[in-house]
Design brief:
single chain; 205 residues; alpha+beta; Multidrug-efflux Transporter 1 Regulator Bmrr, Chain A; 2 domains; eight-stranded antiparallel sheet; 7 helices
Amino acid sequence: MKYEWRKKDKEIYLPSSTPTKIVVPPLKYFTLKGKGNPNSEAFKESVEALYALSYCVRMLPKKGITPEGYFEYTVFPLEGVWDLDEEGRLSEQLDKDRLIYKLMIRQPDFVSNSLFSTAKEISAKKVSDNLLNSVMYEEIDEGLCIQCMHIGDYDSEPATFLKMEDFCTSNNLTRIDKRHREIYISDPRKTDPQKLKTVLRFKAQ
């Protein structure tokens, strides 16, 4: 039975378009840090590197490698934690060149450090050494968060964040910091910008 995140993890990846609380458990990821405009070539290459490694793990049995505990699954969606540098935070307008991000793709529970190393070795033909050496394998524990499904283009996200902030106020919760997570449910290359689905999430207490 194939593990489909859209069916098994609806609470995490397919929330309502009304803000809700969620406690996200510790999960494993391949991650890659970067900075600058997400419309840049460097950003595109980072995304491609994470997908190359993630699909490599998914396809290992076809290369004669079946990790202990392996199961069929759909590769998880791309995610990003977004922040601004000091100058960007002081600006009244969003300067995309001042963005700081950490891109990631969740990995199934059977993935280990040694499997990560294997995936890097196999992906060396497709991914530059510089990017391969920058990718990390880590477990991230988000804990208590507020999240909401945003439908529309990325530039219209502030309206959804406002709803989430209002939800915090109504429920005696506080947003911990200005960083936020985005989970890209839609493929922007194939989807009308007005119909893009993006999970927006930030930590709260």
